[in-house]
């Protein structure tokens, strides 16, 4: 949660995996738990999925990714 919070513009599973040094499956499980508790929100789906601590930030990051722009 703290790592996602630091990246205010949203992040991906891949970025989180690299930042925290955990296997992808562990990151996916952690994100699922955080989403369920309402601490993290997902914007977009599949390759455009972005995670942030607000729904607005997650949606914005996903939209930027879909449009081919980096944060």
User: Could you give the distance between the termini?
Assistant: 19 Å
Average residue-wise pLDDT: 88
**Strand fraction:** 5-15%
Order of strands, widest sheet: 1-2
Summarize the amount of helix as a percent range. Answer: 40-55%
Summing up helix and strand content along with how strands pair, one would put the structural category as mainly alpha
Which residue ranges are poorly predicted, with pLDDT under 50 across at least 5 consecutive positions? none
Would you count the extended β strands for me? 2
Q: Count helical runs.
A: 4
Largest beta-sheet details: 2 strands, antiparallel
As a whole number of angstroms, the C-alpha radius of gyration is: 11 Å
Shape: globular
H/E series: HHHEEH
Task: Put the structure in a nutshell.
Helices cover 54% and strands 8% of the residues.
SSE topology:
Layout: H1 2-6, H2 13-20, H3 24-36, E1 41-43, E2 50-52, H4 55-66
Antiparallel strand pairs: 1-2
Helix pairs in contact: 2-3
Descriptive account of the structure:
- The protein starts with a helix and ends in a 5-residue tail after the last helix.
- It has a two-stranded antiparallel ribbon.
- With 71 residues, the protein is mainly alpha-helical.
- The longest helix is centred in the middle third of the chain and has 13 residues, at 24-36.
- Strand 1 (41-43) and strand 2 form a beta hairpin.
- Helix 2 packs across helix 3 (24-36).
- The chain has four helices and two strands, in the order αααββα.
């Amino acid at each position: 949660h703290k790592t996602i919070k630091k990246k205010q513009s949203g992040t991906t599973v891949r970025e989180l995996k690299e930042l925290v040094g955990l296997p992808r499956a562990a990151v996916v499980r952690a994100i699922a738990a955080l989403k369920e508790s309402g601490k993290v929100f997902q914007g977009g789906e599949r390759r455009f999925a972005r995670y942030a601590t607000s729904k607005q930030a997650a949606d914005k990051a996903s939209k930027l990714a879909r449009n081919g722009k980096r944060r």
